[in-house]
Amino acid sequence: MNRREQWSVGEHPALDLRVPVGVVEVHVGDAGILQVELESAAAADFEISKTGDRVAVRHPSRWSMRGRSCRVVAVVPRGTDVNVETASAEVRLSG
Fold it and tell me: What phi-psi label fits residue 50: left (phi over 0), alpha (psi between -120 and 50 degrees) or beta?
């Protein structure tokens, strides 16, 4: 299952990701737009919220997805504060 979300953000956006397992990729994109795509059988279980210019993507289970893996791809404006918490995920940041 895929889930894609996109938001307009200001000059100082932030992204908080909490992904128990899988792959997390963060790439630089256009100013003013923050995008997140989830590829996972558990995509519907993720909690996604936006407060001001801060976007949070969290799986409610801190350390387990019962053997399910996921891939999270975020495209953020240059200068975005990014925080990634994971138990066992490969994290790739570029840009």
Answer: beta
Q: Which two tokens stand for residue 81?
A: 């504060």
Closest to 6 (Cα-Cα) out of 32, 44, 25, 41: 32
pTM above 0.85, yes or no: yes
- CA dist 31 and 67 (Å) reads 36
Please list the ranges in the chain whose pLDDT falls under 50. none
* Residues facing residue 54 across a β-bridge: 14, 51
The two beta strands, 81-94 and 47-51, are unpaired
Residue pair 59/65 in contact by the 8 Å Cβ criterion:
yes
Number of H helices, E strands in the chain: 0, 7
Residue 62: the pLDDT is 58
